[in-house]
Amino acid sequence: MPELGPLLVAAERHDVAGFVARTLLTHFSDQLSEDLREGLPLYLEAMRLEAVRSEGQLAELLALFAERGLPVMPIKGPLVAQSCYPDATLRPCLDLDLMVHPDDVRHIVGVLIEAGFTHQAGLGPEEIAALRRYAGELILFRPNSLPVEPHWSPAPRTMAFDIDIEAIWQRAIPGEFRGAPCYLPAPEDHLFLLALHGAKEQWHQLKWLLDIAAFLTRHPRLQLENLRSTAAAQGCRRVVDLALTLSQQVFAIPTGVPAADAETKRLATGVVGRLERGAEPPPGPYRITQFHLRLRERPRDRARYVMRTAFTPRVPHYRRLPLPHGLRWLHVPLKLPWDNLLTPAVHVGRRLGHWAREWTTARPR
């Protein structure tokens, strides 16, 4: 058997180490070293305990929101693990994602704070207000718990994915998760949300593609043409087609939908190439990228994406450039020179200073 070190490192990076460990133990146990035969079962047991913990925490929160009469819709994470995978314990969850109604954000956050959660460290009221305007989500932390991310939009406003959130809520299905009442997204909507998340992150983790493949396998009667039509009306058909194309190319999952357009195929080829090369994660969603420009099929969406990303101030701008209340509107025109002139100049200055200190230290006396 070839050296397993690089494989296990890559599996950890892509959050699929549980599946790799189970495969190795099931099919190649006699070829494994003694250390791996002993260590992999311990690793899988730790994953099982973590899955139980995450499911229990999600159920606890859903019950808490139900007591307050607040509608909440779990997405991704434990819900996908439980409903789509043969063994939910192999799909790790790093946080708990909840879709919440935009009108309920303040109440949802209040309940989480009462339960011991806090906002990101050091965020003041102005920065929290900025996140509310552009991020589409907040992240809250509690010791010894998974972070919780309430989403009132599936992507930041800067990305110009202006999704019909009300329609998603209207199609939501009353249900439960481990006995806790909640709303569940309609299957087509959940697949759409998974596709949006992967597109936002440029599909740089294999776990998100595996979610799509598992979802399609678990729901063979999905109305994919209806989903593509709904997505097309919102300028997002390429988002859906890219997810379906990647599931076909990487996991040979048949979808029965017409072939994607040429640009979608090129995007899929690029994603697969990056995964095969083990490339570093791409820039986050707040940078203008060729990937996200090419992902949009409508020129007006590309234009809105560029304008919003270029001119929407974010938390770092409010933090690094504090202005009096009456002058905070200046953050908008100042963002472009701040990002493209001052910040690079500061980075270059720091790098030159580091090189100068190293040269001075190494210089013979």
Short description:
The chain is globular. Helices cover 59% and strands 6% of the residues. It has 16 helices and five strands.
Topology readout:
Elements: H1 5-13, H2 17-27, H3 34-67, E1 72-75, H4 77-84, E2 96-100, H5 105-114, H6 125-134, E3 148-151, H7 165-171, E4 173-177, E5 180-184, H8 187-200, H9 206-218, H10 224-233, H11 237-251, H12 262-277, H13 290-295, H14 299-311, H15 315-320, H16 331-362
Parallel strand pairs: 2-3
Antiparallel strand pairs: 1-2, 4-5
- Please work out how many helical segments DSSP would assign: 16
Q: Give the SSE order as H and E letters.
A: HHHEHEHHEHEEHHHHHHHHH
Number of domains: 1
Q: Can you tell me the CATH topology?
A: Beta Polymerase, domain 2
The CATH top-level class label: Alpha Beta
Shape: globular
Helix content: 55-70%
Low-confidence stretches at least 5 residues in length (pLDDT < 50)? none
Cα separation of the termini: 54 Å
Quaternary state reads single chain
Task: Please describe what this structure looks like.
With 365 residues, the protein is mainly α. It has a single domain (5-320), classed as Beta Polymerase, domain 2 (2-Layer Sandwich), CATH 3.30.460. The protein is 59% helix and 6% strand. It contains 16 helices and five strands. Strand 4 and strand 5 form a beta hairpin. The radius of gyration is 23 Å and the shape is globular.
